Amino acid sequence: MSKLLFFATLLSLAAGLPLRGQALYRAGQGTVYFKSDAPLELIEAASKSLRGVIDPVKRSFAFSVPTSSFQGFNSPLQREHFNENYMETDKYPEATFTGKIIEDVNLAVPGVYTIRAKGKLNIHGVEQERIIKSTVESKGDTLLVRAAFTVLLAEHNISIPRIVYQKIAEEIQVTVEAGFSK
Questions:
Q1: What is the CATH number of the domain that holds 62?
Q2: Cα angle value 47/96/108 (rounded, 5°)
C-alpha cells in the first residue's frame, strides 16, 4: 500500500507542473542510516536505496525506502529479526515521507538553505505527522539534502519484547542524505 501511495504522490507532483519553468528534482539513490543505542547493545544499519522527488514550484516532496534494504547490523540473525519481528517487511515493505517544504525558498538559486519539511512519516504502516529540519545545498541543477531526526518505536506500533528490552533503544536516531538532479 505504501508503494502505491509513493507512486501516487509522484504522479500528483508531476501532474501539476507548468509546461515551462523548473523541473522536478529526482533522487534515484540516497542513504538512510539508523542507530539504536541501547544500554546493552549498539545497532547500526544503512540503506542506499532511498528514492525521492522534490517539486520546487509546489514546494512538495516524496521519499521512499524499502525496509528490507537495510544492511549492517551486528549479525545476520539481528537483520532477520529486524525484518521479520520488528519492521514486518513482508507486510510493510517501505517507509515513506511525503509533504511540503514550509519555507518559501527558491531551490534553483545556488546556496545552502535550512528548511523544515512537514509531512506524513509512514513507518511500519503507521503514519505520523512530522516536521523534520533539513539542510539543502543547491547548485542550481542539483540538490544535496541532509536531515537527522529521531523515531520513537512506540509511535509506529513497533514493540520491543521484554527479553531484549535492554538491547533495542525505544528512540532510533535516523540520518538521511540524498543527491537530487533535474
A1: 2.40.128.110
A2: 90
pTM, full prediction: 0.84
In a domain, 182, yes or no: no
Assigned C-alpha cell, 180: 537530487
Place of cell 529526482: 26
Assign 69 to helix, strand or coil.
Answer: helix
Number of domains the chain is built from = 1
Whole-angstrom distance, CA of residue 169 vs CA of residue 155: 13
Residue with cell 521479520: 84
Contact 103, 135 (CB under 8 A): no
- Asked if residue 125 is part of any domain, the answer here is yes
The alpha helices in 49-179, defined as continuous H runs, are 76-81
- Determine the Cα angle at 137 with ends 3 and 11, to 5°: 25
Q: Of 88, 92, 71, give the one whose Cα is nearest residue 3.
A: 92
Query: Mind listing the pLDDT tens digit for each residue in 123-149?
Result: 999 999 999 999 999 998 899 999 999
Residue 93 lies in domain: 2-16+23-177
Across the chain, what does the average pLDDT equal?
A: 87
The residue to which cell 517507509 is assigned: 95
